[in-house]
Structure formats: C-alpha cells, structure tokens
Amino acid sequence: MSHPSPDALRREAAERLTALQGHPLTPRDRLAIPPQEMPSREPAERIRHVEEVALGYSPEQARLEALRCLQCKNAPCVEGCPVRIDIPAFIKALAEGRDAEAMAVIRRNSLLPAVCGRVCPQEVQCQERCTVGKALKDVRKAVSIGRLERFAADAERQSGRFQPPPVKPETGRRVAVIGSGPAGITVAADVRREGHAVTLFEAFHKPGGVLVYGIPEFRLPKAIVELEMETLLAMGVEIRTNFLVGRTRRLENLLKEDGYDAAFIGAGAGLPRFLEIEGENLVGVFSANEYLTRANLMRAFDRQRADTPIYPARRVIVVGGGNVAMDAARMALRLGAEEVHLVYRRTEAEMPARIEEVEHAKEEGVRFHVLHAPRRVIGNAAGRVTGLECIRCRLGEPDASGRPAPVEIPGSEYVIEADAVIVAIGNEPNPLIRQTTPGLQADRRGRLIVDPTTGQTSLPRVYAGGDVVLGSATVILAMGQGRQAAAAINAFLASLPPRSA
User: Fold this and answer.
1) What percent of the chain is predicted at pLDDT more than 90?
2) pLDDT at position 501, please?
3) How does pLDDT run across 63-85, given as a tens digit for each residue?
C-alpha cells in the first residue's frame, strides 16, 4: 500500500490552514476538517531496518488536527485517560501554536508523553470517548489525541526546552522502586518530586523495563526511553541495574536492614505463557518475550555485532492477536524471514492489538490466519520445527472475557510449514519476589493483590502496580496505577515523624 509522502501531507494541511484563517470555526466547521493521516515509511523500505515507522505530524498537520477538537466542557476524553491529562487544554494550546504551554499541561500528569503518544491504545481510552468520533460515528475519526501528544513531546525535545520537574527539599525518607518500566518510572518521579530519596532497582543491564526489552525500535526509539531515564537521574533518582530483587537482595532486607521506608513493586509480567500443546519443546519454538528481548535489548537485528544472535528462520509463525504478537511478527520480517504467518483463534474484530499495528503488519506482508487455532508443533528427526498443525474455528457463545469463544471445527486440521514458532499469548508475573517475600499475597495467576485505590499490598509499607498487578496491560494503565501508588506512598511518608536529611 502506498502512502502520501510527508511533504504532500504537510502541503495539504498548510493549504487547509490557510483557508481557515480569519474565520471563527463553528462545531460544524471543525467536524468537516478531515482527520490527519500519520506520515510513515513505505512498507517495502521499512522492513529492511528497525527505524521508526510512524514519522510524526508536521506542525501544519498538528495545528489542523488540533482544530478538530470541539473543546467540550464535560471533557469525556479526560475520563478515558488513566493519568487524567487535561486533554482539551493541551490541544487548545497546540491549535493556537503554543507548543510549550501544551507540554506544560501534559507534564502536570505524565512524565512519558513521547512514549504514550506512540504506544498507548488511545482508540480504546481517551479517543473512544471523543465527541468528534461519536458525532462522525467512527472512533477512527476521533481527534488523534495520541498523535498530538507525541507531536508536542517531540517538539519539546527537538527544541531543547525541557527541564526536569522541580524537587522539594530533602525529607530524609527513602523509597525503593523495583522495576524501571512505566509504573516504576512514574512512581520514582512522583515520589522524588516530594523530596524523598528514591532508588530504582532494575534486573536487566539497561533501565526502561518493557519500554526497552518489549517494544521494538520501529515503534518506540530507545533514545526516547534513554532521555526519560536521564530525566530521573537529573531529578536525583538513583538507578541500580543488574539488581534482581529476590536474589541479589530480598525485599524484606531492603525494608528492615537497608533503611528504606517504603517500597513499590513494578516488576512487570515477564513470565511467558505457552500453548501447552505437543511439540512446544522443539528447537525453534520461542516465547515472544524471549524473541523480542533478544531483538530489542540485545540488538539481535544487528547480526554482524550482536553477542546473542537470534535463531535464523525463513518461515515464521506467530500465535496470538495482541500488540506483542504484531511486534514479534513485524520483527521477524526485519530479522530476515521470507514469510511470516500470524495465527489467531478469533476474528480480526476480537484482536486486542491496536488497529494501527494490525494495519502496519498487513502492509508489511504478514499473512493473517484468523479463526485458526494451533493443535501441535511438528518437528523433524533432529528435533527442529518444521510446521504447525492448526484447526479451523467458528465463533460460539461469549466466554469469561466477554468475547465469542472459538469453537473448533472437527476434521478441518491442516499444516502451515515453518522453521520457527513464536508464542505470543500473554505473560504472567515472575514468581521470584512473591516466593521470597513472606506474607505477600497474590491471586491464582501470580498477580499481586493490592488495594485498588492506594496500590498497597498485603504488607505494610509495600505497594505495587502495573503488569505485576494487572497481568499484561498497557503503558498508560501501568502509569495510572503508578500515580495512585505514588500518591499513597507520599501520604504515608508525610504521616511519619520528620527526619533530618
């Protein structure tokens, strides 16, 4: 599929802006402005490298898209934002060319606008509630809040205007934050703002959590994540990498012996789930977690210099229908696969992946097999994958998730030939912290049980949020939980007797 060039999109937006100048816009005028298409690289070009696919709005496109906002007084979009950004205010500032003010509004509630603007599922959060989308009877025509957030953040970064959030005087209190993903970053920033000392513990050799090891460069450039880490350092947050809480040091040791007054667990959900079918132990079967970690964190795509190159595969099958499945399928193409097949047991309408990610995967040549379920992985005498046996399905009555349950059609089995199978059906929290911390309660799937308002766990002074509580969720939901927990931690520390710094 061919896309208009970035220059063509910019010119078209500039012409429309010129035509609108000098005329007060009525709601009908705003609804008549077409949604602005995101400039992107051509599919044939982008699958040869890992550079970012979506190129971002031009200033002209951003202004025009912002003018589509009706500035609703009840602001339903804010209700759909887990961190409660004042969306109408920042969009109004963009529409009037006040980019710095737009970012000031966003920064009140979010430390990661460049990240959220790229990877958050706005279409099922803030944009789903947008009055423009409802008026036009199509959520795809809602105001592109996420793309505008990205534009504002990128413009700030490119201008060099950004300053770290101010930090209050030192309180002498210390907080341990376990995990440097979105929830941990949010807690570290919000707690540090109040003057408390914060140490961020990361198990890997690079901070950033899922933003670094889970999301590919072509969706989220790692330079953006590194900038957010630099912001924390500039605020005075200490970051300790290669520190696996539960093994390097237990949580109770941090609290009882190392002087931390409170702790936040944001260790994510790094334990992959598998299909539990015959053949999953064959050479060439990967969890998406391992596959993407090797590719993203260890740069397996750089085959000449990678210390941990990935298993070479000509034909790859990915099982799953979420964003991680799309990431794995699209990464497989960039790692040299000639064919990539995606197998999903429901229809495309039930896929949890973002619409944009599904469209990008299709543009790049990923072959979709919907209403197909895996039955067994097939291998050769050497124990290597040669294919995946699947069975066709139809949709039945809704299951516990509320989606129609796939029902297998007897006698419809067939085989897709392949030399690698990537399983992308979700993750669960790693049990290490739970197993090494007496009294820390979790549900049957290993997710920590917390107070829904404060994020406090079953242990005093210990809070948690993000995927370790939600299972595999989104960046913005993890940030929302981080904000709640940080507020509770700050309130708890404020209740303690003063301590000299």
Assistant:
1) 85
2) 47
3) 999 999 999 999 999 999 999 99
Q: Give the C-alpha separation, 181 to 473, whole Å.
A: 12
Compute φ and ψ for 437, nearest 5 degrees. -125, 95
46 Cβ partners below 8 Å, 6+ apart? 40, 53, 218, 364
In CATH terms, is domain 274-425 a member of 1.10.730.10? no
Quote the pLDDT of residue 2.
64
Q: Contact at 8 Å (CB) between 99 and 51?
A: no
pLDDT (0 to 100) of residue 275: 95
User: How big is the chain by its Cα radius of gyration, in Å?
Assistant: 24
**DSSP H or E run through 412:** none
* CA dist., res. 99 & res. 153, Å (int): 9
Q: For the chain, which residues score pLDDT lower than 50?
A: 501
- Pairing state between β 404-408 and 197-201: unpaired
Q: Give the residue range(s) of CATH 3.50.50.60 domains in the chain.
A: 174-270+428-495, 274-425
β-partners of residue 238 are: 199
Give the per-residue SS3 of 175-217: EEEECCCHHHHHHHHHHHHCCCEEEEECCCCCCCCHHHHCCCC
Fold of the domain built from segment(s) 174-270+428-495: FAD/NAD(P)-binding domain (3.50.50)
Domain with CATH 1.10.1060.10 in the chain: 6-159
- 3 state DSSP class of 457: coil
| Spatial distance between the Cα atoms of 114 and 111, rounded to a whole number of angstroms | 9
Tracing tokens 């979105």 back to the chain, one arrives at 182
Q: Which CATH number fits domain 6-159: 1.10.1060.10, 3.90.79.10, 3.30.70.2740, 3.40.1110.10?
A: 1.10.1060.10
**Region of 192 on the Ramachandran plot (φ > 0 left; ψ -120 to 50 alpha; else beta):** alpha
The pTM of the full predicted model, rounded to 2 decimals, is 0.92
- What integer best gives the mean pLDDT of the chain? 93
- pLDDT at 408 (0 to 100): 96
Of 322, 372, 317, 319, whose CA–CA distance to 347 is shortest? 372
> Residue 310 has what pLDDT?
82
pLDDT at 209: 92
Amino acid type, 134: K
